[in-house]
Amino acid sequence: MPKMKVLKFGGTSVGSAENIRKVKEIVKSQSDDAVVVVSALGGITDKILNAAKMAILGTDYFNTELTAIRERHEAVVEQLFEGERKEEVKEQVSQLLDELERVIIGVSMIGELTDKTLDKIGGFGERLSSYIISEFIEEASWIDSSKLIKTDSNYGKAQVNFSLTNTLIKAALGEFKGVCIAPGFVASNAEGEYTTLGRGGSDYTAAIYAAALDVSVLEIWTDVDGFMTADPRVISKAYVIESLSYAEAMELSHFGAKVIYPPTILPVYKKGIPTYIKNTMNPQAPGSLITSSQANGKDHPIKGISSISNISLITVQGLGMVGVTGISMRLFSALALQNINVILISQASSENSISIAVDTAKAGVAEHAIRAEFEREIQNGRINKVEVESDLSIVAIVGENMKHSTGIAGKLFNTIGKNGVNIIAIAQGASELNISWVVKNSDLRKTLNVVHESFFLSENVEVNVFLLGIGLVGGNLLNQIQQQQEKLLKQNHLKIKLVGVANSRKMLLDREGISIEGFKERLDAEGLSSGLPAYKDAIIDMNIYNSVFVDCTASNDSPIVYADLLNANVSIVTANKVAASSDYDNYKKLKSIAQKKGVKFLFETNVGAGLPIINTLNDLVNSGDKILKIEAVLSGTLNFIFNTIAADVPLSKTIQLAKEQGYSEPDPRIDLSGIDVVRKLLILVRESGYKIEKEDVKINTFIPDEYFNGSIDDFWANISKVDADFEKRRQVLEAENKCWRFVAKYENGHSEVGLQEVAQGHPFFDLQGSNNLVMFTSERYNEFPMIIKGYGAGAAVTAAGVFADIIRVSNI
Ligand code: ADP
Ligand code: ASP
Ligand code: MG
Q: How far apart are CA 117 and CA 124, in angstroms?
């Protein structure tokens, strides 16, 4: 004996002739008898209700809406039918549309639109669609749901009288064989007047039929592959949940998962009817199954995340509420009397405040009702505050498995907090099926992203990069990221996504990601004119999760924005030494903001480019070692100069060569003055845990001061004057088998930089080319200091160091 099924097709599924053809195929492929519930053509209910609202406002715009509604239906009929049938169907559709038009014109003339009229109008979309589809599926019959589903007169969202409804449905369809098309959403009250089941209510219609007929299965056909871990319009990485329990589906839909209208679950749950969510556009996909059996969810403690935006939080506060019974009862009764749905409740155990979340559209009425109910308490001060906060959203995570896992709330709020999102209220039921919390509307997207990522895609972490500076280092960095991207994703499950890029003139931001290939052309074509403050503001406004600002400039100005960015929970990776070598207080401030906010402030490349110097130092200090002495050759430029100097290559020539070969700054005096080395030493000493300012470092210059005071042209014109003296000294040095190194040193609170004569056998002696070398003498590395040595300059190694720091940010 064939069993019976109920299938429901939503607005998109019946939104075009092409999709209605798919519906027909799906219906025809069924071997069971079936009741097929259909929604209005997608978007039509909105248009109908809008036309009515326009009509009452006295504008003629309703005519435009009516015309559009007519054209949509006519076009569908035109494409689905042929010949005489087409004319017949057209005629019927036209009559229904005429009827709709008459009611709406009536509204515009009388200037009155009651909820009752609105319900009469609202159901036209389903009446039209169900008629068209029942004609298109030749062997199908049609039944009027509004005659079978009986409700009270709560127009707009009527309550079903189940005993009467079940009897009527069983009488009409109990013995039914074949396919019967029924409009969703529509119902009627005891007087036979039209009512509706609430927006999105066709799902509910289907569940009501399913339960009344005790069918074997309910199928909700829509435009996505199933019930997903999050709203796919917000979270592109959301994926289909294979199976979920009635309770999970109920919670997720209650908290905003639009894929199913929340009241739908109860009737099928009571009868234990398995319910599938399937995709009309992709019928082969398995879909999601909602049943009573325990959630699978072996991999994840939670099933999904959902959210409702535009809610308001009303907080009632007063010391006089503590220990007084009946306050909650009065509060909720007052709200119930106004038909206000409370979405979330949060009460501290001290009972001195209670917060409830309601739809913002209802917040005014709710506040008024509460103030009226507690008028006396407000007057005598037992309640001292009724406060409404708006522009908020509720987010909920749902899953039966939460019951068996610990640490979920901890992980949840930790992740959210690290991303700088403030949590305004929290609620968790004792059933542990759901944790919900309130955030600002403007933080919603970010919250959903971080939570989805940390609970579902823990194997794939995404880091969002905002790059500043696309010169040599920035350019190299992008190339390296591009080359490594695939491998990082595969092996480290790390996705580095470029979401912002700026040079001194232009900036480009795109939360969906900027392809590295061709980014320059895009920056030129689409980039907005930039400037540091504008770029910073745009980054903060974007409020994107796991984000990192990467400074690949040598600009004195860019570090000015670091504090604001860190405060907005954006990590910073910088190749720019200015910040870490600025005033000690500023350096300290940046580090402490980063620590407080749980983000990173990394500058490994500030000393020794790509060499792992600062990280090594941090590891030593963090693990309890104490740095006693630092000796380092930190200037690639100066090392090149003192490696090149020879009888036939005087000092002035080496400076010129350093410049020509790209080892020095455009004005080589910046290197020669030792200032750059001082900055690096400051950073090393600070990272060793000591307080030091620039002025505390003694600089022993090897070129007289006068060369630094004049213009750069004067410098080039005169520098050869030092050659003779240097050559004399060099010969002495050579005879003693020694060489010069420009050394930075710290010991016992004393820091200095300057030229040092180094004898053969010393680790500095054999330092080739422009290499760097750092020696740490510590309590642990005492007799033999720790040595780190290698290329200490160059765009490629610096970019690699920056890249490594970006990867480090992902490990938060
Ligand atoms: P129908 O018209 O078929 O009733 P709806 O638009 O009411 O379809 O519901 C389906 C839509 O719900 C999807 O297109 C999707 O954008 C949205 N949605 C929100 N949350 C979820 C979720 N968790 N899983 C699947 N879809 C969701
Ligand atoms: N057509 C109705 C609406 O748009 C009901 C539904 O589609 O479920 O709300
Ligand atoms: Mg729907």
A: 12
Strand 434-440 to 461-468 pairing:
unpaired
Q: Tokens for 250?
A: 């109920």
Integer angstrom CA distances of residue 183 from 43, 96, 267, 386, 811: 16, 14, 18, 44, 53
pLDDT at residue number 350 = 66
Could you tell me the distance, in angstroms and rounded to a whole number, from the CA of residue 147 to the centre of ligand 1?
28
Q: How far apart are CA 21 and CA 180, in angstroms?
A: 17
Strands 275-279 and 217-222: parallel
Whole-number Å distance, alpha carbon 542 to ligand 2 midpoint, is 33
Q: What was the pLDDT predicted at 642?
A: 94
Mutate to test the pocket of ligand 1, among 199, 259, 277 (most ligand atoms within 8 A of CB): 259
Pick the residue whose CA is nearest to atom 8 on ligand 2: 200
Ligand 1 atom showing the smallest separation from residue 9 Cα: 3
User: What amino acid is encoded at 419 in this protein?
Assistant: N
Relative to the alpha carbon of 205, which ligand is closest?
A: 2
Instruction: Look at residue 457 in the predicted model and tell me its pLDDT.
Output: 59
**Beta pairing partners, 461:** 494
* Catalytic residue numbers, as ranges: 680
pLDDT attached to residue 295: 52
Rg of the Cα atoms in the chain: 36
Q: Mean pLDDT in each 10-residue stretch from start to end of the chain (812 residues)?
A: 87 97 97 96 97 89 95 97 96 97 93 94 97 96 98 96 98 96 98 97 98 97 96 88 93 93 96 97 96 67 92 91 82 92 82 90 96 93 93 94 83 89 86 89 92 74 93 94 90 90 94 92 91 94 92 93 96 96 96 92 94 95 96 93 94 93 83 93 97 96 90 93 94 94 96 95 90 95 94 87 92 57
Q: Which ligand is nearest to the CA of 222?
A: 1
For 613-791, CATH gives 3.30.360.10
pLDDT, residue 490, reads 86
**Exposed e or buried b for every residue in 482-509, given b needs 16+ CB within 10 A?**
eebbeebeeebebbbbbbbbbbbebbbb
Residue 707: both structure tokens together: 């060369």
Nearest CA to ligand 2 atom 2: 200
Distance CA 533, CA 624 (A): 40
Among residues 215, 152, 210, 223, the alpha carbon closest in space to that of 184 is found at 210
Kindly state the tokens that stand for 454.
Answer: 């940390």
Residue-range domain boundaries for the chain: 4-224+259-291, 304-454, 461-609, 613-791
Cα separation, 277 vs 623, in Å, equals: 54
Give the class (CATH, top level) of 461-609.
Answer: alpha beta
CA nearest 27: which of 167, 164, 186, 137?
137
Measured CA to CA, the distance from residue 20 to residue 790 in angstroms comes to 69
**Residues contacting residue 157 through CB under 8 Å, at least 6 positions apart:** 196, 197, 198, 201
Helix (H) / strand (E) containing 34? strand 33-38
The response to whether residue 201 sits with its C-beta less than 6 Å from ligand 2 reads yes
CB-CB contact of 552 with 470 (8 Å) = yes
In the chain, how long is the greatest CA-to-CA distance? Answer: 116
Spatial contact of 805 and 575, defined as CB atoms under 8 Å apart = no
pLDDT for position 737: 94
Residue 50's CB: how many other CB atoms inside 10 A? 15
Range 4-224+259-291: architecture per CATH: 3-Layer(aba) Sandwich (3.40)
d(CA 589, CA 595): 10
Return all residues near 596 (Cβ < 8 A) that are at least 6 apart.
none
- CA 742–ligand 2 middle distance (angstroms): 78
259 Cβ closer than 6 Å to some ligand 1 atom: yes
Q: How far is the CA of 220 from the centre of ligand 2 (A)?
A: 13
Atom of ligand 2 nearest to the CA of 204: 8
Q: What class has domain 304-454?
A: alpha beta
* C-alpha pair distances (Å), 61 with each of 45, 47, 64, 332: 16, 11, 5, 41
